[in-house]
Amino acid sequence: MHAEIERYLKETNAAMRPICEKLREIVLKAAPHLEEGIRWGGPSYKGKGVVCGIGAFQKHVNLFFFRGAQVPDPGGVFNHGLDNATSRNVQFFSMEDVKVKPLTTLVKAAAKVDAEGGAKARTKRPDLPVPVVLAEALRGDPRAKKFFDSLSPSARRDYCEWIGSAKQEVTMQRRLEKAMTRLGEGRKLGDEYV
């Protein structure tokens, strides 16, 4: 047995451990080609992308399917996260909830979706125009401009959206002052929360 998985199972709530062990067995039999490892703190199974994973909690176990929204589920096995754009879950509260045949079918279907599509390519978001007030302020502060230009596109977008979304001039000016102070100090927006 995979050492990290063994450690995870030992540390799992004793009432939920048999469910985790059975789910692991089902996944490994249904899709033996998947790579088993610990991701996001629990057992997960990866092909081209993450196919599924197991998460044990105090009173239930989740079998999550990373791209579950694309997995056919004619038997209605998914019972949690049905509104999610990409993932789906099956929650188990007891061993009686673990139905081998439908779960095997679901795991095989998820592995097929993964094999056929792999990981979805991210679509690049267009650059957000820098608000005029921010552009003017940056021209007057070379240090802040240098730091702003060195930021990742998403970090620059954070500043642009924060300043540009202000509805009142007073709010925009207050945000601009805070932004220029942070940029001059070499700080990203929200760094104080990290």
UniProtKB/TrEMBL annotation:
<dbReference type="Pfam" id="PF13376">
    <property type="entry name" value="OmdA"/>
</dbReference>
<dbReference type="InterPro" id="IPR014922">
    <property type="entry name" value="YdhG-like"/>
</dbReference>
<protein>
    <submittedName>
        <fullName>Uncharacterized protein YdeI (YjbR/CyaY-like superfamily)</fullName>
    </submittedName>
</protein>
<dbReference type="Pfam" id="PF08818">
    <property type="entry name" value="DUF1801"/>
</dbReference>
<feature type="domain" description="YdhG-like">
    <location>
        <begin position="17"/>
        <end position="110"/>
    </location>
</feature>
